[in-house]
Design goal:
The protein is mainly β and about 140 residues long. Helix content is about 10%, strand content about 40%.
Amino acid sequence: MELARDGAGSLVQALAARDQRGEAQVLVWNGTLDQSKRHGDPALSRLVRVRVTGLTAARYRLSHHRADGELSNVVRTWHDLGAPDWPDGAGWAALRAADRLAELEPSRFVTPEHGAVDLEFELPMPGASLLMLRVA
């Protein structure tokens, strides 16, 4: 795996894995050590290009999940509840409902070319994307 271009290896980092079935998962995140920007800064959003190689199946189902300031953010739900010391029953129900990893887009099929798939997406800061390629 290689990280290149503006923000690579500092703001934008990634981790990839492949299992024995040939399915692949890539976790890409965008963050900063500058605590004054911990709640986000549009100037630190990045266009991310991911190339997954070594794919042996003819077709994969791609799922793209996201956690950021809007999606999969249970802390935001807690703040929306008024940041209580201890939620009431309705508050716990709201937190449980929000405690999910959201899909950024509907899953779709992709076909590798020469064993590789190229993906591109915007990644806000802070934000994380989980890309899952399952054999179809």
